[in-house]
Amino acid sequence: MLTKLLSIFMWIAGAVMTFILYLAMLFFTIVLYPFDKQRKVAHAQCYWWSDILLCNPYWKIKVIGLENIDKKKTYVMVANHQSLADIIILYQIKSQFKWVAKESLFGIPVLGWCMSLAKHIKLERGDFSSIKKIYREAAQWLRANMSVLFFPEGTRSETGEVGEFQNGAFKLAIKEKCPVLPIMISGTRDAIPKGGRQFSTKIFCTLRVFPAVETASLGPGDFDKLKDEIRSKIVDGLAQC
Length: 241
Prior knowledge:
Blueprint: H1 2-31, H2 40-53, E1 59-64, E2 76-79, H3 85-90, E3 98-102, H4 103-106, H5 111-117, E4 121-123, H6 128-143, E5 148-150, H7 168-176, E6 180-186, H8 188-191, E7 203-209, H9 223-239
Helix pairs in contact: 1-2, 1-5, 6-7
């Protein structure tokens, strides 16, 4: 019963705070439209939104490795994916980036509006032309000194184990000579299991940012080596949690 009541409260509180977030993002988008084409101020509103949603006495969140983020650098960020809660916790890195997110998320009322306002990158699964388009768009953001964040597994893990990584993010990082920033997330699968709507209690989540891996010396054929190196960092980090 406690878990059900907590879940109802969390969904209501989350919906209210997300609507307030949308209003804040809309306000800054309109006011700063001529001056903030990358929507950095709108994106930054998600930091306090994340802080408030994570003020849950039943959830303990530990963030490690923020010193590995150089705010003056542009990264291809890659993170493992366990649940919808990953979106909330990843804003704890307090850095500018554009998500690569599936099209269906943009269709969610309020949350999807926020994603559109922030100019995140929309992926239509199963559409090859869309996949090519999102990598062109991601490359444009990187060239404009804006980091891009990928979930290279392509979908949320049902077991908690890290799935195989897709190649795209790593090929892009090598092509654009951008360092790859590995980010590990643990514990969020227990918070909101895939396919479920009920929040769990007494959750311990960890977000860990590893040192960036440089790509300047890598060639097009090195993407597999880079992909395996990044995945190993995340898998080894999860084994230590």
